[in-house]
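Human:
Care to share another protein and its fold?

Assistant:
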Amino acid sequence: MTYTFVWGQKLSNYEKCWAFCHPIAALKVKHISKNCFKIYQQSTITIQLDKNANGGKLDAFRHTFFMAAFAQKIKIRKLKKLGIAHEKYNYKQFLKSEFENGEVPDSLGTIMDLKNNDLGLEIGTKYKKENLVKLSEIVINAIHSGEAVVIKRNKLGDYVDCNGQIIILPKQKKWGNNKCIVKSNEN
């Protein structure tokens, strides 16, 4: 049986362990995720942000929005553990050269995701009563104002280092690399 609930992906062993330890929260996450996906998959989201599901504003939106929605109903401490569990699996994917959203995960993507998760937790705590549509608008505004983080790219969509030099990523061999994390309104 395949279990999915967070970010629409198959659950890792780390996430299954989290769900086992927090069964009520896991059921809430599963239910909330289904409703979040309806909004996340709307074309208006990519029009307002970008189409970069890995390292871009769309990626930042996914992590921030889902965590904000979860934070409206679930304790922050539990959600931080869920976010860490999800990111731990990214390292395993890297070791196996497995793709996540079209790319092999790396350390900067993990850092970016955890920072955006934290932003989502703040937003969800602050706006506990807002519906998901309004919450998605709040998250989009936060991304446009630079509260989220993304991985720096040039105008052609190539990853660049902090000095603007193009990074060639043939087959990624290092967990750490020269990518650069920037505020979401700088890219």
About this structure: The mean pLDDT is 91. Residues 76-95 form the longest helix (20 residues). The helical segments are 13-21, 23-40, 43-48, 57-71, 76-95, 107-126, 132-144. The first strand starts at residue 149 and ends at 151.
